[in-house]
Structure formats: C-alpha cells, structure tokens
Amino acid sequence: MVVRKTNGKNSNTELLFSQNYACPDCNISIEELTPRMFSFNNPFGACPECLGIGSVMKIDEDLIIPDKEKTLYDGVKAFGSSNMKKGDTMAKMYFESIARKYGVDIKKPIKKLPKEFLNKILYGTGTECIDFEYESAAGKRTFTSPFEGVIPTLERRYRETKSQGMREFYEMYMTNHECHECNGSRLKKESLAVTVGNKNIEQLTSMSINKIKNFLDDLQLNKTQKMIAEQILKETNKRLQFLIDVGLEYLTLSRPAGTLSGGEAQRIRLATQIGSGLTGVLYILDEPSIGLHQRDNDKLLATLKKLKDLGNTVVVVEHDEDTMYAADQIIDIGPGAGVHGGEVVAQGTAEEIKLISKSITGNYLSGRKKIKVPEKRRKSNGKSIEIKDATQNNLKHLDVKIPLGVFTCVTGVSGSGKSTLVNEILYKGLAKKLYKSVDRPGKHKEILGIENIDKVINIDQSPIGRSPRSNPATYTGVFDIIRDIFTETNEAKIRGYQKGRFSFNVAGGRCETCQGDGVLKIEMHFLPDVYVPCEVCKGKRYNRETLEVKYKGKNIADILDMTVEEALEFFSNIPKIKQKIQTLYDVGLGYIKLRTTFNNFIRRRSSKS
C-alpha cells in the first residue's frame, strides 16, 4: 500500500506495510492499515459526514419554490402558511421585514426578484440583523435578529424533529446531494490517502472493468511487492475476466446495484457462479435474455456453456431463438396457455422440434409460421419531443428527436445509455413538467415539444397493485363494474345489499374466518409459513349469504374464478367490462383467472387496461 505525503514543495510516496504513519507537516496520522478501512460499510472506513452513503439529504430549492412565476405571498412550500395573503403569518412577517430592509417589492414574481435578496430569503442573512415587526395582542412589537433562512430552518427542523411523520413531510422537499466531505467517494480522507499505482480505491473503482484490468496488468511492482501482490492480483484478474466474459466490461465497480438493469444484475450473478468453480449444481434461469442486445446474447450463451462445461446442469426457461439453437435439449410445453396447455408437446434438439407440426415453437423455428414485417410504416403526426444535450451517466451531449404518433424503439448494446435516456431523462423530465414530480431528471439542457402531449405514463416491471390482495379484476377496474351489476340484481335489492357487500376487503360480505383472503396462514416455528384453504368458505372468500346472490347463474366467487377468456364471453353484452377484459386478452393473458393475485403474476406482461 502507498501513502502520498507532501513535505513543503516536495511530494513523494512511501510504501507502508502494517505500520502507523504520521506526517508532522500535514498533521495527519494514519493507523495500521486494515481491510475495514477501505469499506464504506464499516465505520472505520466510512465518511463521517454521509456515513458511507456518498450523498446527503438536503432541502431542494426547486421543490420548496416549484413555481417561480408566483410571488412570495403565494407561500414557500413547508415554510409557514401555504398562502400568506389570507392573514398574518410568521413567514409573511419575515419576508416583508427583509424586503423593507433591502427595498425590494415582494409583490413581484419570484423570478424577477434580485438574486442577492432571494439568497438571503433562502439561505439567511448571516450575522446581519433585521428589524422585524409583528402584531400581537398588546399591539405592534419589534425585535432585531439575523434571519436563519428558509432552507437552513427547514433542515434544522428535519434534524431536530422526533416525529416520523414530520421527517417524511420534510423529505418530500429534499433530494440527495453529493457529500461535500468525501465528494461522493463514501470513504474517509485517510482511506483515500492510500494509493496503489498513484490511484486510491475510489479512483480505481470508478474506472470501467476493462480499464481496471488493463491498469492491474500494467502495474509496476518491485520484487518484494510482486511477492505480496501475486495472489491478490491473480484472484482480482480472474474475477474481472468473468465480468468481461459476460459482456459487462463497460460497468464500473462503484456502480450502485439499484441502477443496474435486470439483465446486468443476472449476468453479474452468473459471473459470480462461474468464479465459485462449483460442480454438480443444477442452475435454473428464468428468461435471462430479456433486454439483451444480440451481441450480448452471444456472450450470455457462452457463459451458460461454460457453466455446463464445469460439470453442472443448466435449465433455462426461455423462448429466444438463439438460446434454443444453443441448447442440447429442448422441452416444449403447450400447445397453448392456461387450460389449453400443460402438455409436453415435443422434446429433443431444435432440428427435431422443427419436424413436429403440433409444436407452435417448431412451426416458428421451421418458418412454417412467421411474424410478418409491416410493408407500410405509420407516419408521424408531424410533432415531436426533442431532448437537448443529454449528459447523464455515459451519454455524451446527446440530442435526440422522438417523433409523436408512432411506435418508436430505442435500441443499442447493453450500457449504451438507453434506459438513462428514456427513463431517467425523458420520463422524469416530462413528469416534472406535467405533474410537478419531485424526482430529479438526469442531466440535460432542456426538453422541447412538451406542449404536444398532455400526459406521460410509465409502464415498467415494478410490482402492480396496492395490496397483496390485488388481482387483474381489481387493478383494471373491472371488479367495480361487476359489483355494480350484482348490486342491481333483484336478490341484492330484496336483501338490501350495497356495493360493499360484494367486496372481499370489506366486512359484511366477506368470510370473516379468513378476512376475505380465501386462505389461512399457519405459522411454523422453524419452517416457512404454510397457507391452507379456508375451511369455512373453501377458498371462495365470501360468506354463504353473499354467495346466494347470483347473476346469470353465477355468484361473485364464480365470476372471480373465471379466466379472462371465459369472462370475455360471459360479459360480451356489457361493453364497459368487455373493453377492459378484451385488452387483457389481446396482450396474451387470456389464460389467467380474474382472481389471480399479483405475487403469482408475470409482471413484465401486465399493464393497466
């Protein structure tokens, strides 16, 4: 390990091995070097200011003053009254007194106020005192004091409050900012003083995996250093090569796990498994090629073959053509979905599968069935959304024009910046403008053409439904209409049943034994919990009286037990229901039941109808 020491005009480096080091000129002392000093998850290495996170929560000026077209009288978010025009408030007294001191008219829009004055409102007057006037029961009173500032006041209240609710309230107006102490490196300055080849650990992990490997390969060490570092470099290079082999050479080791795409995360796990060197293991992968470019798909398949060559078995749930051709054995299940599937249609190599006409997979592999390429393309409506100077992550001052009224695909190899451009810049930028979202968009100059759209909807792979009880019927809004229908039946009217009677979330109509879940949880002390069907309602979720009300011979539990395909036929004469269910059917979900809970639901194919 190397510690850089500065002595006056001269700068030199010294090699340290398990000894204390102190510089009398810099007044810095470093204790014996240990691995924990280089971990931001350990208090011995973490930056004391941000506790190893690399960022701190601070009040965001744009969130407390979202609309600079308004005046200070319209209120500053989280500080005083939301509308100071309605009466005297402390906020109003502060702002008017400071304005009087500096001769500023605060009836003007905020954007027209002098910048120096606005800074005093937001960040305080320092040691400069202000004469404040306020009305009390005894008449007009005055006091002289410096003004703390809106932002310092809110940050102080956030630190001092004991209420979790108030902390959450202030966090609505806060964003993450890079820690000023460690500049986002997350480590103590003492840890960052230790260098290898003139680079500290933060500088090294901020390089791409490819560059790190080249750096370590070119590292100049003397004979003694080589003896110490030989085994370390060997293991490090081996792990870096595993990541390169799965096509992740562009990633940095310091990249936050939450920013990785699903494909990147899965390939990192694959590289870890290859590095473990285990044999005799059965690996199961669920559609690992999702989101991968064809170039990266080849690297993925090479990795899977390497796992197999180590003496393991690899089972992949997949319908990617390249994966099927690379497989030693294919098991084709079908022929359809739901009640139309469940059989082994064919088994063998890709060439053998092609010969079986009953196999839908074989029909497409052989070319008997094809996805036709459109002969004509839809033309744009002439309008567009234009992103200017996108520079977030690895985007290099990108200008992109996206035509409106057409189906636009953004493609490229993994790590080229697709998700950053679309999710971090385009979506968050539009959401901020259209919905006043608090999410900060990625770095860009501006987005033009926002006036051409009135809303933006993000359909991603995050869990859907507000509770574990949510299902396709509740999420799409079909269940509300179905309950209205049951409420209008003669039996329901005679019994005086209202809409809530047919909800499994409301007491009265649901089975109270299972609270409308349809299952009971049995807690096992040393094993996972076991769920069994409710003995009272037999999994129907409703009580006997509710199930006696029927529509066209079906009670509410029978309706929920229908597949989308069955429900489409059953409600064919009710347009409001048919329209929503038709959408589910059109996206290939005809086989799922309306009561299917989302923990058993394939998220990537779900969307709000």
List the helices and strands and how they pair.
Blueprint: E1 2-7, E2 10-15, E3 21-23, E4 28-30, E5 55-59, H1 61-64, H2 90-102, H3 115-123, E6 129-136, E7 139-146, H4 150-160, H5 164-171, E8 174-178, H6 189-192, E9 194-196, E10 199-200, H7 201-205, H8 209-217, H9 223-245, H10 262-276, E11 282-286, H11 294-309, E12 313-317, H12 321-326, E13 330-334, E14 343-348, H13 350-354, H14 360-366, E15 384-390, E16 398-403, H15 418-435, E17 446-448, H16 472-475, H17 478-487, H18 490-495, E18 519-522, E19 530-533, H19 544-547, H20 556-560, H21 564-570, H22 575-586
Parallel strand pairs: 11-12
Antiparallel strand pairs: 1-2, 1-9, 3-4, 5-8, 6-7, 9-10, 13-14, 15-16, 15-17, 18-19
Describe the structure.
The chain has 609 residues and is of the alpha+beta class. Helix content is 33%, strand content 15%. The protein has a 4-stranded antiparallel sheet. The chain is globular, with a radius of gyration of 32 Å. 22% of the residues are buried. The model is unreliable at 1-19 and 602-609 (pLDDT under 50).
Briefly say what this structure is.
By secondary structure, the chain is α+β, with helices and mostly antiparallel strands. The chain folds into five domains: 73 residues, Up-down Bundle (ABC transporter ATPase like fold); 120 residues, Orthogonal Bundle (Helicase, Ruva Protein, domain 3); 123 residues, Rossmann fold; 69 residues, no CATH class; 134 residues, Up-down Bundle (ABC transporter ATPase like fold), CATH 1.20.1580.10. It is built from 22 helices and 19 strands.
